[in-house]
Amino acid sequence: MVTPLSLYAGGRSKDASPVMKDFKSWTVSGVAYDCADFSGLTMARGGMRMVAVFNSAGAYWMNIPQDGDNYLVFTPLWAAGTQYEMIKRDMEAVAVDPSNGDIYIAQERPSGKGGSVVYKGKSIYRLKAPAYDSEELLYTFDDSIVPDGNSGLEGLSWMKKGQLVVGREGNRQNKPSPALMFYSVKKGLKGVMAVDPEIKQIAEVSYDKVRRCYWILDSDYDKVLYRCSLDGKIIDRYPVPFIKNAEAMYIDRPGKCIWIGSDQKPSMLYKIYFDNL
User: Fold this and answer.
1) DSSP secondary structure letters along 50-100
2) Which of 11, 55, 64, 153 has the fewest beta carbons closer than 10 A?
3) DSSP 18
4) What are the CA-CA distances from residue 170 to residues 60, 140, 144, 146 (Å)?
5) CATH 3.40.1000.70, applies to 26-268
6) Which candidate, 65, 62, 63, places its Cα nearest to that of 52?
7) Phi, psi of 4 (to 5 degrees)
8) Of 225, 255, 232, nearest to 20 (Cα)?
9) Domain residues of the chain, as ranges?
10) pLDDT, tens digit, for every residue of 68-126?
11) Could you report the per-residue pLDDT of 147-162, keeping only the tens digit for each?
Protein backbone atom coordinates (compact mmCIF):
# COMPACT_ATOMS: atom_id res chain seq x y z
CA MET A 1 0.00 0.00 0.00
CA VAL A 2 1.28 3.48 -0.86
CA THR A 3 1.19 5.80 2.13
CA PRO A 4 -0.11 9.38 1.88
CA LEU A 5 3.34 10.76 2.66
CA SER A 6 4.97 8.94 -0.23
CA LEU A 7 2.18 10.03 -2.54
CA TYR A 8 2.56 13.66 -1.56
CA ALA A 9 6.20 13.89 -0.61
CA GLY A 10 6.54 17.10 -2.58
CA GLY A 11 4.32 19.11 -0.27
CA ARG A 12 1.09 19.23 1.70
CA SER A 13 -2.07 17.93 0.06
CA LYS A 14 -5.58 18.64 1.29
CA ASP A 15 -6.44 15.02 0.55
CA ALA A 16 -3.58 13.41 2.50
CA SER A 17 -3.92 13.23 6.27
CA PRO A 18 -1.39 15.04 8.47
CA VAL A 19 1.00 12.69 10.25
CA MET A 20 1.82 13.35 13.91
CA LYS A 21 5.52 13.09 14.75
CA ASP A 22 7.36 13.93 17.97
CA PHE A 23 6.80 16.75 20.44
CA LYS A 24 8.56 19.17 22.76
CA SER A 25 7.16 20.54 26.00
CA TRP A 26 7.68 23.45 28.39
CA THR A 27 6.56 23.96 31.98
CA VAL A 28 4.55 27.13 32.50
CA SER A 29 6.00 29.28 35.26
CA GLY A 30 6.19 32.92 36.22
CA VAL A 31 2.50 33.74 35.80
CA ALA A 32 0.12 34.67 38.58
CA TYR A 33 -1.37 32.30 41.14
CA ASP A 34 -0.27 28.67 40.85
CA CYS A 35 0.65 28.55 37.15
CA ALA A 36 -2.29 26.24 36.50
CA ASP A 37 -5.44 26.37 34.38
CA PHE A 38 -3.99 26.89 30.89
CA SER A 39 -7.25 27.27 28.96
CA GLY A 40 -6.77 29.18 25.69
CA LEU A 41 -4.08 29.94 23.11
CA THR A 42 -3.90 31.73 19.77
CA MET A 43 -1.55 33.76 17.59
CA ALA A 44 -1.53 37.54 17.90
CA ARG A 45 -1.90 39.66 14.80
CA GLY A 46 1.38 39.73 12.90
CA GLY A 47 2.50 36.31 14.08
CA MET A 48 5.30 37.56 16.33
CA ARG A 49 3.79 36.50 19.68
CA MET A 50 0.89 34.50 21.07
CA VAL A 51 -2.03 35.21 23.39
CA ALA A 52 -2.56 32.81 26.30
CA VAL A 53 -5.41 32.80 28.81
CA PHE A 54 -5.67 30.96 32.12
CA ASN A 55 -9.01 30.42 33.83
CA SER A 56 -7.64 31.62 37.14
CA ALA A 57 -4.41 33.42 36.30
CA GLY A 58 -5.31 36.05 33.72
CA ALA A 59 -4.46 36.83 30.11
CA TYR A 60 -0.92 37.20 28.75
CA TRP A 61 1.20 37.85 25.73
CA MET A 62 3.48 34.83 25.32
CA ASN A 63 6.64 34.44 23.28
CA ILE A 64 6.70 31.82 20.56
CA PRO A 65 9.19 29.37 22.06
CA GLN A 66 11.92 27.96 19.86
CA ASP A 67 13.15 24.41 20.21
CA GLY A 68 16.27 25.49 22.09
CA ASP A 69 14.40 27.65 24.61
CA ASN A 70 14.24 26.38 28.17
CA TYR A 71 11.42 28.60 29.41
CA LEU A 72 8.45 30.71 28.35
CA VAL A 73 8.09 34.47 28.68
CA PHE A 74 4.72 35.94 29.73
CA THR A 75 3.71 39.61 29.78
CA PRO A 76 0.31 40.61 31.26
CA LEU A 77 -2.14 41.61 28.59
CA TRP A 78 -3.71 44.21 30.88
CA ALA A 79 -1.88 46.86 32.84
CA ALA A 80 -1.19 46.02 36.48
CA GLY A 81 -3.82 47.35 38.88
CA THR A 82 -6.70 47.55 36.41
CA GLN A 83 -9.95 45.75 37.18
CA TYR A 84 -9.24 43.33 34.34
CA GLU A 85 -5.92 42.28 35.87
CA MET A 86 -7.15 42.07 39.45
CA ILE A 87 -10.13 39.73 39.02
CA LYS A 88 -9.68 35.99 38.74
CA ARG A 89 -11.74 35.03 35.69
CA ASP A 90 -13.04 31.81 34.20
CA MET A 91 -11.65 32.51 30.73
CA GLU A 92 -11.79 29.30 28.73
CA ALA A 93 -10.70 30.26 25.21
CA VAL A 94 -9.31 33.09 23.12
CA ALA A 95 -9.36 34.11 19.44
CA VAL A 96 -7.93 36.98 17.40
CA ASP A 97 -9.29 38.83 14.39
CA PRO A 98 -6.24 38.74 12.09
CA SER A 99 -7.42 41.79 10.16
CA ASN A 100 -7.27 44.24 13.07
CA GLY A 101 -5.90 42.41 16.13
CA ASP A 102 -9.06 42.52 18.25
CA ILE A 103 -9.06 39.82 20.92
CA TYR A 104 -12.13 37.72 21.76
CA ILE A 105 -12.45 35.82 25.04
CA ALA A 106 -14.95 33.10 25.98
CA GLN A 107 -16.03 33.39 29.63
CA GLU A 108 -17.61 30.17 30.95
CA ARG A 109 -18.73 31.00 34.49
CA PRO A 110 -19.41 34.45 36.01
CA SER A 111 -16.58 36.23 37.80
CA GLY A 112 -16.64 39.13 40.18
CA LYS A 113 -15.17 40.90 43.14
CA GLY A 114 -16.58 41.82 46.51
CA GLY A 115 -19.75 39.82 45.93
CA SER A 116 -20.67 41.58 42.68
CA VAL A 117 -20.61 40.00 39.23
CA VAL A 118 -18.33 41.91 36.90
CA TYR A 119 -18.13 39.38 34.08
CA LYS A 120 -21.12 37.33 32.94
CA GLY A 121 -20.81 33.62 32.33
CA LYS A 122 -21.62 31.92 29.00
CA SER A 123 -20.43 35.08 27.27
CA ILE A 124 -18.06 36.42 24.63
CA TYR A 125 -16.04 39.55 25.35
CA ARG A 126 -13.96 41.68 22.99
CA LEU A 127 -10.82 43.71 23.67
CA LYS A 128 -10.26 46.35 21.03
CA ALA A 129 -6.84 46.71 19.43
CA PRO A 130 -4.38 48.29 19.63
CA ALA A 131 -4.58 49.53 23.25
CA TYR A 132 -6.52 46.59 24.74
CA ASP A 133 -7.45 48.87 27.63
CA SER A 134 -11.22 48.47 27.40
CA GLU A 135 -13.43 45.44 27.14
CA GLU A 136 -16.99 45.00 25.92
CA LEU A 137 -19.56 42.28 26.40
CA LEU A 138 -20.66 41.12 22.95
CA TYR A 139 -22.98 38.20 23.58
CA THR A 140 -24.41 35.97 26.32
CA PHE A 141 -25.73 32.56 25.32
CA ASP A 142 -29.27 31.68 26.33
CA ASP A 143 -29.81 29.03 29.01
CA SER A 144 -31.50 26.80 26.45
CA ILE A 145 -28.31 26.71 24.38
CA VAL A 146 -25.59 26.74 27.03
CA PRO A 147 -26.34 25.66 30.62
CA ASP A 148 -24.86 27.23 33.72
CA GLY A 149 -21.87 25.53 35.31
CA ASN A 150 -18.73 23.85 34.12
CA SER A 151 -19.99 22.24 30.91
CA GLY A 152 -20.52 25.33 28.79
CA LEU A 153 -18.09 27.36 26.69
CA GLU A 154 -14.88 25.47 25.86
CA GLY A 155 -13.25 26.59 22.67
CA LEU A 156 -13.21 29.65 20.44
CA SER A 157 -11.74 30.18 16.99
CA TRP A 158 -11.87 32.92 14.36
CA MET A 159 -13.36 31.83 11.05
CA LYS A 160 -13.80 34.80 8.71
CA LYS A 161 -15.37 38.25 8.42
CA GLY A 162 -16.62 38.61 11.96
CA GLN A 163 -17.62 34.98 12.43
CA LEU A 164 -16.36 32.70 15.19
CA VAL A 165 -16.95 29.07 16.07
CA VAL A 166 -17.53 28.36 19.77
CA GLY A 167 -17.28 24.96 21.44
CA ARG A 168 -20.01 23.73 23.77
CA GLU A 169 -18.27 21.32 26.11
CA GLY A 170 -21.02 18.89 27.02
CA ASN A 171 -20.87 16.51 29.99
CA ARG A 172 -20.95 12.85 30.97
CA GLN A 173 -24.76 12.73 30.92
CA ASN A 174 -24.78 14.19 27.39
CA LYS A 175 -26.86 17.09 28.73
CA PRO A 176 -26.05 19.12 26.84
CA SER A 177 -24.32 17.21 24.08
CA PRO A 178 -21.01 18.54 22.69
CA ALA A 179 -21.64 20.94 19.82
CA LEU A 180 -20.20 23.73 17.71
CA MET A 181 -21.94 27.09 17.87
CA PHE A 182 -21.55 29.69 15.17
CA TYR A 183 -21.49 33.32 16.26
CA SER A 184 -21.48 36.50 14.19
CA VAL A 185 -20.22 39.74 15.71
CA LYS A 186 -22.96 41.61 13.87
CA LYS A 187 -25.84 39.11 13.96
CA GLY A 188 -25.31 37.05 17.11
CA LEU A 189 -25.85 33.29 17.25
CA LYS A 190 -26.34 31.88 13.76
CA GLY A 191 -26.62 28.19 14.49
CA VAL A 192 -25.66 25.12 16.54
CA MET A 193 -24.23 21.93 15.03
CA ALA A 194 -23.82 18.55 16.71
CA VAL A 195 -20.47 16.83 16.32
CA ASP A 196 -19.63 13.18 15.71
CA PRO A 197 -21.04 11.12 18.62
CA GLU A 198 -17.61 9.59 19.21
CA ILE A 199 -16.53 12.99 20.57
CA LYS A 200 -17.69 12.92 24.17
CA GLN A 201 -16.53 16.33 25.33
CA ILE A 202 -15.14 19.42 23.60
CA ALA A 203 -12.16 21.01 25.33
CA GLU A 204 -11.09 23.26 22.43
CA VAL A 205 -11.89 23.87 18.76
CA SER A 206 -9.82 25.46 15.99
CA TYR A 207 -11.02 26.26 12.50
CA ASP A 208 -8.51 25.37 9.78
CA LYS A 209 -9.11 27.69 6.82
CA VAL A 210 -6.52 25.94 4.62
CA ARG A 211 -7.91 22.42 4.93
CA ARG A 212 -11.44 23.72 5.61
CA CYS A 213 -11.98 21.56 8.66
CA TYR A 214 -12.21 21.72 12.45
CA TRP A 215 -9.65 20.43 14.94
CA ILE A 216 -11.32 19.38 18.20
CA LEU A 217 -9.72 18.37 21.48
CA ASP A 218 -11.41 15.80 23.73
CA SER A 219 -9.31 15.84 26.88
CA ASP A 220 -11.38 14.35 29.70
CA TYR A 221 -12.52 11.19 27.99
CA ASP A 222 -10.27 9.71 25.34
CA LYS A 223 -7.48 12.31 25.26
CA VAL A 224 -7.71 12.57 21.47
CA LEU A 225 -7.16 15.35 18.97
CA TYR A 226 -9.73 14.97 16.19
CA ARG A 227 -9.74 16.45 12.72
CA CYS A 228 -13.33 16.87 11.58
CA SER A 229 -15.14 17.83 8.40
CA LEU A 230 -17.24 20.99 8.18
CA ASP A 231 -20.31 18.92 9.10
CA GLY A 232 -18.66 17.69 12.30
CA LYS A 233 -17.73 14.16 11.20
CA ILE A 234 -14.38 12.69 12.24
CA ILE A 235 -11.72 12.48 9.52
CA ASP A 236 -8.58 11.69 11.58
CA ARG A 237 -7.79 10.73 15.17
CA TYR A 238 -4.53 11.64 16.95
CA PRO A 239 -4.28 10.17 20.47
CA VAL A 240 -2.43 12.43 22.92
CA PRO A 241 -2.28 10.29 26.09
CA PHE A 242 0.92 12.08 27.16
CA ILE A 243 -1.06 15.31 27.73
CA LYS A 244 -2.78 15.27 31.10
CA ASN A 245 -5.57 17.78 30.46
CA ALA A 246 -5.47 19.37 27.00
CA GLU A 247 -7.46 22.61 27.04
CA ALA A 248 -5.79 25.11 24.69
CA MET A 249 -4.83 24.70 21.04
CA TYR A 250 -3.47 26.62 18.07
CA ILE A 251 -2.83 25.28 14.55
CA ASP A 252 0.52 26.75 13.48
CA ARG A 253 0.94 25.90 9.82
CA PRO A 254 4.09 28.03 9.25
CA GLY A 255 5.64 26.27 12.26
CA LYS A 256 4.48 22.85 11.01
CA CYS A 257 3.07 22.11 14.42
CA ILE A 258 0.05 22.24 16.70
CA TRP A 259 0.45 23.96 20.06
CA ILE A 260 -1.51 22.46 22.97
CA GLY A 261 -1.76 23.86 26.49
CA SER A 262 -2.48 21.48 29.37
CA ASP A 263 -4.52 22.58 32.39
CA GLN A 264 -2.60 21.03 35.28
CA LYS A 265 -0.33 22.07 38.16
CA PRO A 266 1.90 23.46 36.86
CA SER A 267 0.48 23.92 33.39
CA MET A 268 2.36 22.58 30.38
CA LEU A 269 2.76 23.74 26.79
CA TYR A 270 3.29 21.15 24.04
CA LYS A 271 4.56 21.68 20.51
CA ILE A 272 3.50 18.68 18.43
CA TYR A 273 5.18 18.38 15.04
CA PHE A 274 3.27 17.20 11.96
CA ASP A 275 4.21 16.17 8.45
CA ASN A 276 1.83 17.40 5.76
CA LEU A 277 0.04 19.74 8.16
Assistant:
1) EEEEETTTEEEEE----TT--S--EEESS-TTSHHHHS---EEEEEE-TTT
2) 11
3) P
4) 27, 17, 13, 9
5) no
6) 62
7) -55, -35
8) 225
9) 26-268
10) 888 888 888 876 555 555 456 778 899 999 999 999 999 887 776 655 657 788 899 99
11) 766 567 889 999 998 9
